[in-house]
Amino acid sequence: MRVSHSFPAISATFDDPNLVSCAGLAPTLALAQRAGLGDLVADTLTLKAKGGVNAHLKVPALVAGMVAGADSIDDMDLLRHGGMGRLFNGVRAPSTLGTFLRSFTFGHVRQLDAVASRFLFGLAKNAPILPGVGQGCYVDVDDTIKATYGYAKQGVGYGYTKVKGLNALLAIVSTPVSAPVIVATRLRRGGTNSARGAAKFVADALATAKACGAGGLVTVRADSAYYAHDVIAAARRAGARFSVTVRSNSAVIKAISQIPESAWTPIRYPNAIWDEDEQRFISDAEVAEVEFTGFTSRRKADHITARLIVRRVKRLNPKPVPQGQGELFSLYRHHGIFTDSPLVMLQAEKSHRGHAIIEQVIADTKSAALAHLPSGSSAANSAWLVLAAIAFNLTRTAGTTASVFHAKATTATIRRQLIAVPARLATSARRLVLHLPKDWPSWDSWQGLFNATADHQPQQRPDHPAPTGQPENPVESRTDRRLAGMRTARKSRSVTRLAALITAQNGKNSRSARRRP
Known about the structure:
Elements: E1 19-20, H1 25-34, H2 37-44, H3 55-67, H4 84-87, H5 94-102, H6 106-126, E2 136-147, E3 157-158, E4 164-174, E5 181-188, H7 198-211, E6 217-222, H8 229-237, E7 241-245, H9 250-257, E8 265-275, E9 280-294, E10 304-314, H10 326-331, E11 332-339, H11 345-353, H12 357-366, H13 378-402, H14 404-407, H15 411-419, E12 423-428, E13 431-435, H16 443-453, H17 478-515
Helix pairs in contact: 1-13, 1-16, 2-3, 2-6, 3-13, 6-13, 7-8, 13-15, 13-16
C-alpha cells in the first residue's frame, strides 16, 4: 500500500463545516436519551455552585466525550469540530466542563452514583445487555491503583502495589452469556486498605444488580483482600452467595492439612491459567474440599460455616516455602476458596476462576476514560470515575444493540468500528442526512444500531407518568400568552353578553305574564 499521488500534488485544508469524525455518537446518545440520562441528572443532582448550572447538558456532554475516546478534560474539545454543532445540542467547551467537575462535593458524587445506577436500569430496560440475569449472575468486586504523577492531586498515596496514586474500587455484573457492566464505583485514597468500606459497597452493587433483574443464583466473587466477615455478611444479608479467596492463616493451613490424600481429584485445564505466585502457566492441578468455619476469632454469632475448596499445584521451586509448614506444603502450593455455592466442587472452582473477568474491565477502562484522573480535586476525580462507568455501560449497550459480535467486544473495538465513523452532513427534505464512507467494514452493525435508535421515543420514567389529557400549561411563548388572553377575554365577553340576553328575555316574559287578564 502506498500513497496514490506524489506529495506535492496533495493539499489539505481544515475548512469543511459539514464533516464529523464520530457519527456513531448520534445513535449512542439516542440510547442515553431513551434511558433518561438528562432527566435523571436534572432530578437528582443539586449542584448550587456557579459552575454547576445546566448539569443535564454537561453530564451527557462529558459522557459523549468519553464514549468518543476522550481521557482528559482538554480532549472534550473533540465535541466541537466540523458539523457537531448541527448534529448535537448543548455542547460545552472543555473549560466549562472542567469548572463543572470542580464544583462537585462528596455528596454530589454520591448523587451521581445514584444517577449511574438508575441509568443502568434504564439501559437494561431498553437493550438486552444482561441476558439470563434472572436465572443467575456474578457480581465481581476488585480495586486497582490508578497511578498519578506530581503532588497536586488530593488523596494520593502508596498502595499495595507500591505505586503512588488513587485507589479505584469497582463492582461489575455479568452472566455466563453476557459481557460485564459496571454497577458501582468508588474512588478512595491511594494508601487505603482494599476492604475498607467494601461491605457497604457490596450491598449497593447487589441492590443495583437486583434492580436490573438479577435473580436466581447470584454469587459475589472476590479475591483474598475481601476475605472479611463484614463483606461476606453483606452478601448473605442481600440474599447472594459468596465465593472469596482465603488467606493462608493458621486455621486455613490446619484445615488443608486434614484433607486425606484420597480426597484430591486431578483436573486438567483446557486452557492453561497463569499462576501469579509461580509466575508460570499451569494446566494440571488437584482439587479437594472440606467443611470450614471462618472468622472464629469473632463472637460465635459471627462464625460462618461453608465449604473450603482447595486447588493444589506442584511447586517447581521449594525454596520459598515458609519454615514449619511441613512436607505437604513444600511439595504443593495451595489456593483456597471459601464459598457457599450449591455447585459441585469442580464447577464451583471453575466459576471462581471466572472472577478474572474484572481485570479485563479494569484494563478496558484504563485504556479509555480512566487513562487519567484529570483534576487536582478529589471530588472531581471521583465524579470522573462515575462518568467513566456510565460511558462504559453506554458503549456496551451500543455494542449489544449493534450486533452479536459487538455485544462482547471491548469498548476500544466498539469505539473504532461503531463510534469513530466519519460522516458528512447534508440536508434533504428538511431532514438531516449522514453520508458515511462506502464499504465501511462494520456498516451493517452501524446500520443496525442506527435503525434501532433513529425513530425512538424517549422512555417515560415510572415516577413521571405520561399526561392523560391536555397539558396543564400549553402556552409556550409571549405571543401564545397574548393570544390565549385575547381568547379568554373574548369568551368572557361572550358569556356576559349571553347572560344579559337571558336576563332581558326573562324580564320580558315576566312583564307579558302580568299583562294577561
